[in-house]
Design brief:
The protein is mostly beta strands. It is built from one helix and 24 strands. 3% of the residues lie in helices and 67% in strands. The strands form two sheets. It has a 22-stranded antiparallel β-barrel. A two-stranded antiparallel ribbon has the order 10-11. A hairpin with a 6-residue loop joins strand 23 and strand 24 (402-416).
């Protein structure tokens, strides 16, 4: 905590603006450990998003502190740092720089690292970025990974934009080494002994390209991912849409998926196959608030198929949709309904939702039914404060009757500091 104060004190003195959002929430439920033993839980969360800025320079952090006040859990209380970085924008009107812990979204490269990111405007139509760093610890504490040489990620991306055409090419490389653990093993005589299981680092190395183009009433998107280590295509995607009369939109798409399994993973020894999916849909805008849609997809596995049908209606503050699945992936009939209605100039927004499904994991499996119902509301007495309360009821093959309560409090603060001019 003292280190955090020392880090933030200079920032408070030199910052011009402070943007703070505090979210306090609590979740109450009961867990049935055995038929005779049950435990009650009250887990509370305190989230804080803070930005201190001056001109093009800012310090950003997103922290979560949680604790179970009814049943002691391991590692409680838990302090997690989702991000903590400095951001310097528009350096020499060309570069952007990030240093610290931050999330990466760069084409094929997705993850959170403790490292650096540099973005550059190469020309009017071309931008580039490079990034690299260590994977954050599994418990997300404010510290470097215990084994940084085997847990890291780096990559780069080129992005081209011209009018309605956007294209990118990206490279992604990640190494992740599981922690060693002890397991019981038996020798040739049947004697049991303890052996340390120390796995090698698992690696991804992906090259990806995507293209998005809009012209007249048409929209086109495509993407290809190539696994450099396994020398094969792992993802292929193409979709197209046509907008007619500002009311009707036809869409279709094709997806090719080969499971992305890292090198040296135990899952690489199992048999797995490619899936291919063809989908089509129609969206129809009846009025400004009333819309209807229908979608169909067919998924092809190695030696079987599965189909999915979706029907839905959006009516302003309410929506209802129906989904049906048949084939290799199981059988399902499900309906979802949601409703909310702003009142008193959006100061109070009650809401409710209902989810019901009847499903079978296979044609020979027994049929199960799930029911989920929630009701609640959001109250915003002033622009900087809001309260949310929701009651949830669940019924399925595991929980005959499960009731939970969720509470959340939000506070926003944006102010000018200017301690040092």
């Amino acid at each position: 905590m003292k280190k955090l104060i020392l880090l933030f004190l200079p920032a408070f003195l030199f910052a011009q603006n402070l943007n703070l959002r505090l979210t306090t929430s609590a979740y109450m439920w009961q867990r049935q450990e055995t038929p005779e033993i049950s435990t009650n839980h009250l887990r509370a969360f305190q989230l804080a998003q803070l930005t201190l800025s001056r001109g093009n320079f800012s310090i950003n952090t997103f922290v979560n502190l949680s604790n179970d006040f009814r049943e002691k859990q391991s590692d409680d209380p838990r302090l997690r740092f989702y991000n903590f970085y400095i951001n310097w924008r528009n350096i020499f009107n060309r570069f952007n720089l990030k240093l610290g812990r931050f999330a990466v979204y760069s084409g094929a490269g997705v993850g959170t690292i403790d490292g650096a990111y540099i973005g550059a405007r190469v020309s009017k139509f071309l931008n580039a970025n490079v990034y690299g760093g260590f994977l954050m610890p599994a418990n997300q504490k404010l510290a470097l990974n215990d084994d940084p040489k085997n847990n890291f990620m780096f990559g780069a991306q080129l992005k081209f934009s011209y009018k309605d055409l956007n294209a990118s090419l990206s490279y992604f490389n990640q190494h992740r080494k599981p922690k060693p653990y002890d397991a019981l093993r038996a020798d040739s005589l049947g004697d049991v002994f303890v052996r340390e299981i120390n796995l090698t680092s698992m690696q991804y190395q992906i090259l990806s390209g995507d293209l998005n183009y809009e012209f007249s009433i048409f929209e086109v998107y495509s993407r290809l991912d190539y696994d450099i280590n396994k020398v094969k295509l792992t993802r292929g995607e193409f979709s197209a849409g046509v907008n007619l009369m500002n009311r009707v939109k036809f869409s279709m798409g094709y997806d090719y998926r080969d499971p992305r399994i890292p090198v040296n993973s135990i899952f690489s020894v199992f048999n797995y196959g490619v899936t291919k999916e063809i989908e089509a849909g129609i969206h129809y805008r009846i009025t400004t608030l009333l819309r209807a849609y229908v979608g169909f997809s067919n998924v092809s596995y190695v030696d079987d198929k599965s189909r999915r049908i979706i029907l839905g209606i959006d009516a302003g503050y309410a929506s209802v949709n129906f989904a049906k699945r048949i084939g290799y992936a199981g059988e399902l009939d499900g309906i979802t309904a949601q409703f909310y209605y702003p009142m008193f100039k959006d100061r109070f927004i009650p809401s409710a939702s209902l989810n019901y499904s009847s499903y079978k994991l296979s044609s020979e499996s027994p049929k199960h039914k799930d029911l989920v119902f929630s009701i609640g509301g959001s109250f915003k007495p002033v622009n900087t404060i809001s309260f949310d309360l929701q009651a949830q009821y669940l019924q399925n093959k595991i929980y005959k009757s499960d009731f939970r309560i969720f509470f959340k409090f939000n506070y926003w603060l944006f102010t000018n500091l200017g301690f040092i001019k």
